[in-house]
C-alpha cells in the first residue's frame, strides 16, 4: 500500500499514476472538502480527469482520508506538501516538519518514506531523517528514506506524471534500489542520482535556470523598450539560431509554486557556507519589479492615449492565473497588479475563464471573494483599459481589440495574432 500526503497539484496526479501502476493508494489531506470531492469521483485538478479519478475510487485502488493514523498501513509514504517562503524569504518547512511528525507517530520497520516537496539540498537528511529516527528506527537499517523531486507543469498537455523522467535518490544503497523499483513501476523513465542532496539540488537548479533566464529577458524588455525595439520580435528572430540559444519570453512577473520561491531556498542555504548567490538574488529583484514596471506603462499609456490619470480610471485585468489555461493563482503577478492599480487610486477588476472568484490567499486576503467580470461588449467598454496579464487560449481577443479603448499587452497576444492598432500597447 502506498500513501500520498498532500492531494494538490502534485499529490493527486501522483496518486493516480501510482494507482495506474498497480498499487493500492491511500491519499491523505487535511482539507475535508477534497476528500468529499474525491469520494464523489469529482476531480478539482485539471491534470486529473474525473473519469480517471472515479474509476480508481470505484475499483478500490484509491481512497482518500484525513485520518493520518492510517499511515501505519502504508509500505511507501510519499510527502507532497507545500514549501513556501516566510515574509523574509526564508524557507518555511513547517508543512514538511508536521507531516514527518505525523508519519513518525505510526512509523514501523520496513517502511519507505519519500519526500517530493521542493526544498534546499540537505533537507531530507537534516530535517526529515532526525524526526523519523527519534522513534528509535534508523534510516538505511530499519526504514528507507528517499527524495524524488516533483516535476509537474500545470497546463502542459504534452507531459503527464508518468511520462516525465523521475529523478530518484535514496539514503543508502538499499533505499536507492527500492526507490528505483518503486518509481520504475509508476513512470516511464527513472534517473537515479548519488544522494538525496544531489536530487534536491537537481530541482533547485531547474528552477534557478528558469528564474535567471526570465529575469534576463525581462531586463532586456525594459532596455529595448526604451530604445523603441520590440523584445518579442528580437526573441522570435534569435530563436531561429539552431544552437547556442533558448527562447525565454518576458511577462508581468513570475508566478506559480516553483520559480518565484524555490531559488531562494538555495540562497538561504548558501549563507551557511558564507557564499553569495548574486545571480539568484538579482533575478529575484528584476522579476519582482515587473508588476510595478507594467503598471507604470499602463499609467503612461492612459495619459498619452486617453489623456486620463490612472487614479481616475477603471482597469480590467485579463487573466488572474499565473499561467495560461490553468486555474492556479499561487504567487500570480495579477494579484500584485490589482494591488498596485488600486494603490494609485484606480479601480481594478479581473476576468479569468478558469477562476470564477478569488480564493483566500496569505498576502491578498482582502481580495477574497471578488468575482470574475463577464467578458461582454458592454462590460469591456465600461473600462478605460484592459491589462492583459495571462494569455488564456479560450478568450475572444479579436472582440476585446474591437471593444476596448486601450489595451496594455504583457504577453504579446495581439502581436502573435497579427492584430496591430494604435490603442494596443506592449508592456
Descriptive notes:
The chain has 427 residues and is of the alpha/beta class. It folds into 2 domains: 2-195, 3-Layer(aba) Sandwich (Rossmann fold), CATH 3.40.50.720; 230-426, Rossmann fold. 39% of the residues lie in helices and 12% in strands. It contains 14 helices and 13 strands. The chain has helices spanning 11-20, 32-39, 50-59, 94-105, 123-133, 173-184, 196-226, 231-238, 263-270, 278-306, 333-343, 377-381, 397-403, 413-416; strands spanning 2-5, 25-28, 62-65, 76-79, 112-115, 144-147, 166-170, 190-192, 314-318, 347-351, 385-388, 407-409, 424-426. It has an 8-stranded mixed beta sheet with strand order 3-2-1-4-5-6-7-8, sandwiched between helices. It has a 5-stranded parallel beta sheet with strand order 10-9-11-12-13, covered by helices on one side. Strand 7 (166-170), helix 6 and strand 8 (190-192) form a beta-alpha-beta unit. Helix 4 runs parallel beside helix 5 (123-133), helix 7 packs parallel to helix 10 and helix 10 packs across helix 11 (333-343). The radius of gyration is 23 Å and the shape is globular. It starts with a strand and ends with a strand. The model has no long low-confidence stretch (mean pLDDT 96).
Amino acid at each position: 500500500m502506498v500513501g500520498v500526503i498532500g492531494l494538490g497539484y502534485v499529490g493527486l496526479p501522483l496518486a493516480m499514476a501510482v494507482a495506474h501502476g498497480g498499487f493500492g493508494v491511500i491519499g491523505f489531506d487535511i482539507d475535508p472538502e477534497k476528500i468529499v470531492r474525491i469520494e464523489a469521483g469529482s476531480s478539482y485538478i485539471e491534470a486529473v480527469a474525473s473519469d480517471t479519478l472515479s474509476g480508481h475510487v470505484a475499483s478500490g485502488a484509491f481512497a482518500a482520508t484525513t485520518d493520518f493514523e492510517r499511515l501505519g498501513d502504508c509500505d511507501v509514504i510519499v510527502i507532497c506538501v507545500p514549501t513556501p517562503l516566510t515574509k523574509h524569504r526564508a524557507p518555511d518547512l513547517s508543512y514538511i516538519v508536521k507531516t514527518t511528525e505525523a508519519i513518525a507517530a505510526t512509523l514501523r520497520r520496513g517502511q519507505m518514506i519519500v519526500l517530493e516537496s521542493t526544498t534546499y539540498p540537505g533537507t531530507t537528511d537534516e530535517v526529515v531523517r532526525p524526526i523519523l529516527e527519534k522513534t528509535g528506527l534508523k534510516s538505511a537499517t530499519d526504514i528507507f528514506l528517499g527524495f524524488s523531486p516533483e516535476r509537474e507543469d500545470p497546463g502542459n498537455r504534452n507531459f503527464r506524471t508518468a511520462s516525465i523522467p523521475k529523478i530518484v535518490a535514496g539514503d543508502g544503497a538499499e533505499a536507492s534500489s527500492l526507490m528505483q523499483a518503486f518509481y520504475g513501476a509508476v513512470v516511464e523513465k527513472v534517473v537515479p542520482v548519488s544522494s538525496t542532496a544531489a536530487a534536491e539540488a537537481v530541482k533547485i537548479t531547474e528552477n534557478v535556470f528558469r528564474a535567471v533566464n526570465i529575469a534576463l529577458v525581462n531586463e532586456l524588455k525594459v532596455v529595448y523598450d526604451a530604445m523603441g525595439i520590440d523584445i518579442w520580435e528580437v526573441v522570435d528572430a534569435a530563436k531561429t539560431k539552431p544552437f547556442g540559444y533558448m527562447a525565454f519570453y518576458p511577462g508581468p512577473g513570475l508566478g506559480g509554486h516553483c520559480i518565484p520561491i524555490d531559488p531562494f531556498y538555495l540562497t538561504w542555504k548558501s549563507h551557511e557556507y558564507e557564499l553569495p548567490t548574486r545571480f539568484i538574488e538579482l533575478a529575484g529583484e528584476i522579476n519582482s519589479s515587473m508588476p510595478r514596471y507594467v503598471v507604470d506603462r499602463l499609467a503612461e499609456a492612459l495619459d498619452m492615449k486617453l489623456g486620463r490619470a490612472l487614479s481616475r480610471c477603471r482597469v480590467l485585468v485579463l487573466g488572474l492565473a499565473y499561467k495560461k489555461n490553468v486555474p492556479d493563482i499561487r504567487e500570480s503577478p495579477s494579484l500584485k497588479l490589482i494591488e498596485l492599480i488600486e494603490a494609485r487610486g484606480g479601480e481594478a477588476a479581473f476576468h479569468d475563464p478558469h477562476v470564477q472568484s478569488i480564493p483566500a490567499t496569505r498576502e491578498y486576503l482582502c481580495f477574497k471573494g471578488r468575482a470574475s467580470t463577464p467578458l461582454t461588449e458592454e462590460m469591456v467598454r465600461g473600462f478605460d483599459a484592459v491589462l492583459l496579464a495571462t494569455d488564456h487560449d479560450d478568450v475572444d481577443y479579436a472582440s476585446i481589440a474591437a471593444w476596448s479603448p486601450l489595451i496594455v499587452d504583457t504577453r504579446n497576444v495581439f502581436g502573435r495574432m497579427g492584430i496591430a492598432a494604435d490603442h494596443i500597447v506592449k508592456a
